[in-house]
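Hey, does this match?
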Amino acid sequence: MAKAPKVAIVHDWLVGGGAERVVQALHEMYPDAPIYTAFATKEWRDKLDGKVVTGYLQHLGFMRRAIPFLITHWFSHLNLSGYDLVISSSGNGGAKAVRVPEGTTHVCYCHAPTHYYWRHSKQYLENPGFGVLNPLARVVLRVLLKPLRAADLKASKRPDYYIANSTHTASEIKTYYDRESVVVTPPVDIARFKTTQPNQRHGFVTAGRLVPYKHVDIIVKACNALGLPLTVIGRGPALSSLQALAGPQVAILTDVSDQEMPELLASAEAFIFAAYEDFGITPVEAMACGTPVIAYQKGGALDYVVEGKSGAFFSQQSVKSLMQTIKDFKPGAYDPKAIIKHAEQFSTPQFKASFSHALKQLLGE
């Protein structure tokens, strides 16, 4: 019997979000593998069974994210000798920058080419999303954008193979890094949401971190204009501006528990998604509740929204375009059971099976 390869997992940072769910699934697939990361919350260190390995960045507070070179430098100087396979999980951090010794294979699961330097660079220059640190972040990005891009491009050559989280991300990897990739969509906890069966659906819902690039303001303005009920779930830098925009039929909930979330998603006529995202976990969670999704017709949504079956698209990232789609939207035309079945292809077990299959193909095993 062939000896099992010795595996290490490397991830940008562990603070919460869809990317961390990939790490959770990889940990379940490779429970003995250490997880190297720039910094991690106690919750994630506990959740990953003591396998998390951090360094000096763990103790630097806000400085670790305000100076991007620190993160790339830390990853590029990790000692990964002794491993047969290194799996990096990389998006806006520097995990893909790790250097592996000769004879070790490096496979990068890419959530996106670094937003700050590439597709979203203009938006981040205007509003970096660091709250009170925005002025400092703007200076860093303006002065260092060119060398940061060069460093990111150099790091992008280090993985032997790429796995992308969506067909959109695969296209971005080719555009910005000139690398080929295969697509394995990220894991979604479908089982947690499909158990919710609403008695009645009413109004619309959206959820996620409230940051400018997600364009929740478009959703609020559209529902204001149409006089339709909307529930916004989340918190973030854009919270106060959204609260100022919200009309009488818009409720903004900032403290929704894990137990309440499925019920809120399942009780809506549709989930509205206005972001140009690389994938987008929450819309798929809504689908797992049998809730159709109204999405901006770009990015990762193209991989899971099927017009007329699991949702509908609006073509322009504007209030007018979204309003027209909402007006044309007929909730009764969608079969919740069919939507739930459609969502099952994005489950965690399916991710594990697809990731294993992709690895075998890439490694020729």
